[in-house]
Amino acid sequence: MFWRLTFRFSFAALAVVILCGLAVGQYVDNPDVRGRLISWLLLAAVAGVLLVAVLSAGVTQRMAPALRDLTAAADRIAAGESGKRVFPDGVGVVGALGRSFNLMSEQLTTRIAALEEDRQQLRAILSGMVEGVVALDADQRILFANDRAAELLEFPTRSPVGRRLWEVVRRRALLDVVQHALKSPEPCREELRASDGSSRSLTLHVARLPGSPPRGAVMVLHDTSELRRLERLRQEFVANVSHELKTPLTGIKLCTETLLAGAVEDPEHRIRFLEQIAAQGERLHMLILDLLSLARVESGEEHFEFEAVSVPSVVHACLERHRAKAEAHRQTLDLVSEPEPAPIVWADQEAVGQILDNLLDNALKYTPEGGHIRVGWGEENGHGWFQVADDGIGIPDADLPRIFERFYRVDKARSRQMGGTGLGLAIVKHLTQAMKGNVHAASVVGHGATFTVRLPCAAA
Amino acid sequence: MAKHLQRDLDSLQRDMLALAGLVEAAVHKAILALQERDINHAREVIDGDGQIDNEENHIDEECLKILALHQPVAVDLRLIAAAMLINVDLERIGDLAEEIAERAIHLAQPPLLPIPRKLQNMTDLTTMMLRQSLDAYVNLNKAQAQTVMRMDDEVDRYNEEIIEEIVEEMKSSPTLIEAGLSMFSAVRHLERIADHATNIAEDVIYLIDGEIVRHRDNGGKADAH
């Protein structure tokens, strides 16, 4: 800077001196005067150059550090550092420049901070959503995908951004919807079934972003697997109930028709038909009672009278009720627990009795003649538990998670022959849940099954 | 020129993966039909095979068109060659899924043959191989392709064990022989699907390295360096 200033102004000064020299050469004829004037001019030229040098040095001294500061600060801001300030100690132009630079730097910092905060907030909101969100550009390149979307669409890579949608998702139906949505002005909504290569049912909304040509699309995904599952359960339930009601009714109808057709005159056979009608009627009655009781528990209308219930006393009462039936099948009913400690649970006495009745009933049904059924109780972690274990046919692993469903039967032919309604365990589950407990089943095929019911202790 | 080639290659890859999606879904449904004795799914697979065949033809034409039009070299050429190879494998997998679906319809009729216990393991492994081989293609991931090639041995082992189980079942009850044969061929088809997935993995390695690892048998494993 110094040299540039010095050079420029020296050049100007020299130019003036040379012009003067030329004028002197032109208009002064006297050689003496001319020689003197020229030497004066030379002196003036040297003095001018020196003066320019001194002035330039002064100006440079004043401005250079401030300008260097400014340059360095601007560089840092450009490199991404924020809040850089310079010291506006310069006066005049340089000072003003420094001050406006500081103002700009300050505003830039606040704006960048605000933008960053907005961005973080949006990211947080999007990643906190239950729905999956994917933003695509016009070439179906992924611009953004939240974690939920990655989970729902099972991306094979951890960084889907920048990839084409078809590279990370191979569900054909979904790709077709996206392609269609990118072309149509209306948003598309489509349901994807679980069977197309994935375990999830998804509802898909794809909306094209405005602009022409369109800049891309936003896709929102809802997981509807649970909804579909519940719908299927409801359909199955209706089908099951109709089926269960139909079977005994068919029996009754057949018997009455036979009686009407003439069997009523036959004293030997009519008793058998009537007995059959009575048995089927009883079965219908049981089924409807179970359905009603299940409906009551499920709807939460069942009023429990919570009290401290001593598990051993309920167990004893229950065992007495089932003793006769067990002896008829030459099965042994054993109590395997010591009388102490006796768990006291906070529950409804009648409901606990019903749970135990249902469990014992099942155990008696699925244990062959001469089998053993063991009932025990205990207490741990603030919960009292009781357990019914048999050494019957057991339950295959694949069926274990489903046995508490209504009308679920491991072997359809067999259990109906045993006279069960298919609702016993469902009632057990709902009753225990309504009393804030839980029920657990464990089994080894061929070696029997164990059902354990836990209920909160009265003291806790 | 290069831009047009790139655009055509992009659209080829999209079509390939669209076909892969169809094939994967067909295999998934066929297996579901087999295991759950679900005739509806089986029918869907059989009806869907025509679409798979059409798309295979379309991709074949696209490949030839790109070859003729752009005369690509080096990696672009390998991309087309691999696409043609994988395309054939995908179509064959689609056919096998259809065959499995047909067997599944047979197997849903009484007398019911118990589903072999290890079938679930084998189907899980096969679908995983198919999925991973396609992922390896998308990501050009050599390590993943090699994993798929290693998994094939395990599928072969399951295949043998399940066939033994079916034979035992048929020996114990002659009424189950027809069903047993159906199950036998379904399991064989499943094993073939795993083989085609291995082929796809080998094509991926060819695509990455330009090295042909097919038919370079080292005790069932191809050695790819």
Report on the architecture of this protein.
- The complex is a heterodimer of chains A (460) and B (225).
- Chain A has twelve helices and twelve strands.
- Chain A is α+β, with helices and mostly antiparallel strands and 460 residues long.
- Chain A has four domains: 2-108, no CATH class; 128-223, Beta-Lactamase (2-Layer Sandwich), CATH 3.30.450; 229-299, Signal transduction histidine kinase, dimerisation/phosphotransfer (DHp) domain (Helix Hairpins, Orthogonal Bundle); 306-456, Heat Shock Protein 90, CATH 3.30.565.
- In chain A, 24% of the residues are buried.
- Chain B is mainly alpha-helical.
- Chain B has one domain (2-222): Up-down Bundle (Methane Monooxygenase Hydroxylase, Chain G, domain 1).
- Chain B has a two-stranded antiparallel sheet with strand order 1-2.
- Chain A binds chain B through residues 139, 156-157, 164, 166-168, 170-172, 175, 195-197, and chain B through 10, 13-14, 17-18, 20-22, 24-25, 27-29, 32, 41, 131, 134-135, 138-139.
